[in-house]
Model the fold of this input.
Amino acid sequence: MLKNVHDVEAPTHWYNVVADLPFELPKDIVQPRTPETQNIKLQLPLELVRQSISRDQYIEIPEEVRQLYKSWRPTPLVRAKNLENWLKTPAKIYYKYEGNNISGSHKLCTGIAQAYYYKKAGAVRLTTGTGAGQWGTALAVGCRSFDLDCKVYMVGASYNQKPYRRTIMQMQGADVVPSPSGAKQNSGLFLDQKKVDTGNMAFAVTEALADALSNEGSMLSVGSGEAYSILHSTAIGIEAKEQLSKLGETPDIVIASLGAGSNFGGIALPILKDNLEGSKDVRCRSVEPSACPKLTRGVYRYDRTDGSGITPLQKMYTLGNNFRTPNMHAGGLRYHACSKIISALYHHNLIEAVAYPQTTVFKSAIIFHQLEGVVPAPESAHAIHGAIQEALKAKEEGKSPNILFCLSGHGLYDLSAYEQFLSGKMNDYSPTDADIADSLEKLPLVEE
Amino acid sequence: MLKNVHDVEAPTHWYNVVADLPFELPKDIVQPRTPETQNIKLQLPLELVRQSISRDQYIEIPEEVRQLYKSWRPTPLVRAKNLENWLKTPAKIYYKYEGNNISGSHKLCTGIAQAYYYKKAGAVRLTTGTGAGQWGTALAVGCRSFDLDCKVYMVGASYNQKPYRRTIMQMQGADVVPSPSGAKQNSGLFLDQKKVDTGNMAFAVTEALADALSNEGSMLSVGSGEAYSILHSTAIGIEAKEQLSKLGETPDIVIASLGAGSNFGGIALPILKDNLEGSKDVRCRSVEPSACPKLTRGVYRYDRTDGSGITPLQKMYTLGNNFRTPNMHAGGLRYHACSKIISALYHHNLIEAVAYPQTTVFKSAIIFHQLEGVVPAPESAHAIHGAIQEALKAKEEGKSPNILFCLSGHGLYDLSAYEQFLSGKMNDYSPTDADIADSLEKLPLVEE
Done:
């Protein structure tokens, strides 16, 4: 049960944290090409390239994107008063709700922006890969908004297990196929032919790339893990900061779940800005699943960001691109690594990280649902659980911090996970140290 | 993609159309009891009894209910500008969006109110029957809001086919079982023992009644088809009228889907009031599915409202309580009859009715979804289709009426229906004249 807060304007600029970093980001390293991939050119709209390397502190949001943002932004900032009372905490808990758009998650911030830039770059059709479907949905909505055709390669297991996600993309006019799709054109690029049979996110992206390369007017949108995706998502934090400020408040702790980084960076970076400028000392805390603990158990090394073999290697916290995430429900948090900007911030102790097992996360999600009336996505539930832990800690310590967290999406497409939890059939899985070591052994060899 | 309109206050009173009717409502007729049912007393909170027979024009909404209404009301009134442009119609199309609460539909208006009155009457636990699950969800939320235990008997077929609906009730803390539940206590009351095996809505309500009778502190909430449910739903129309008025507009046509009548009555009656007082001539148009065409193909006769055999017979437009609704997706529009107030208004030509087949309705729903960014419930899609027809008619006639319709709920639990439609597997079913005649033959014999 939600109400929008209309007390602030939707932002006119995104915030680019690179301008304020007290260190240099490690440079990307071009991968050596194979005979199959040596002639392939990755086409990225010039504006997105510029945004990836820009050192401007603010980057203007194009007017067309701003108009579309206005259809659901500013998103609500809500005080979770019932939860506070139930926890008997002296802390104030605020959440920023990003589930109030048709794609259902924060990813629409970059879905709309990317579709705009690709259209401007001459594309008439976009292809992409999606895992659980949140990104595919966001891009499908973006494409429909700018009259682009959209083809989504959805990881086969999700395609079959999450028919609702598939349907919502189709309702937006997207052509959705399971990956591996069986299309001949798509098999040449891939690094490891064995994976053709099973299908995973990297393979879906590779199929989408091969499709784009072989169809005139088509371009690949890599996904929501890129630096410009974090940039586009900062609309969230900029709004939240202003909304809190209108209430006469500032955050003491900011909490968000961490997949590749666009959700966490989206809310945390505009607030971290004040820390970097020396005027504040807000704790920025990322929450990852115990099943995929890249910050808390990974290494800070160069690794591949996808399976195409042609994108540059980046220095990131990673579990290795061969890491097989154990069974878990928060599909958006499965990525093997953390984007280079967030990784560097963690490496320099400017942000925090914690990992929780999924059953404790779902327990908190049900409590939150009953008290606050929102079904959180499993990804967002990680932030809820993190916020509850901080609120309980504040109670123990007799402090009353302002806790802000991002409720990054609704969970109405994920009710089967809740059903599994309620029926007592949900288990926790964590990789063993040996699992992680095995995967890290296969990291590309790079001279640093 | 929705924004709330906060330009009006949530209403303080419900509107009771009975005060303004230019005719007397036909009296209810008590059913002769069988040996099994002769000692059963239906327990209904006194306040709900009063509301059922009241002739007051306005009935005050209790403060506790008003406070809870405020968590999602006033609901948004949205102008469907993209749809208007796409249709190239000179009409203005407004919709009232009732899907912005955790139950997902307008039924929470009465779910919250009923839980309040039952609690006040001493209940510590409510039982109810639900078909597709909308009503069960609304009552589950109501019970949780007032700390009542809640037991929902859900028609077995829906229990299995709509696991998401079941899960959302469980997440609200309700105990949900499929009906027939197999519990011994529940079999004695039922009129037709054959139906024990298959299960339907009437049997689910009967099970819920038997459960309530045999458990201290438990009471049955019959559902959302009662006169007081229509009363509680008038919050919708009262708000919509005021919201339009703030925009300097009045509606020329009001359109809503018709199940038993609470959705249609909820939005239409507060607007029909001006017609009854002679100051306006707004067309109030109900839309029913071709598969269950009670107003357009039923008869105005006395019939049973449920299968318990103990509630009074009411004069209504009905297809007969033995009517078997053909296969269709809008579960909320399956009811065999139309509530007595709405039926009487139709009988006196004060409202209109039309029926559409489901495939045309889903086609309009997809168009609306793509243009306006909301997934409508299949029930609500009937109103959308009706509104589109009126907008096209206005274009043909060169008129520019204000069309208001009720988007009574979201369809995020109904995506399997959309999938069926998109894959071309959806069919239309209408009863034959013989089907209807067969069912009407079994109507109770009543001297009028």
In short: The CA atoms of residues 342 and 373 of chain B lie 31 Å apart. The first strand of chain B starts at residue 13 and ends at 15.
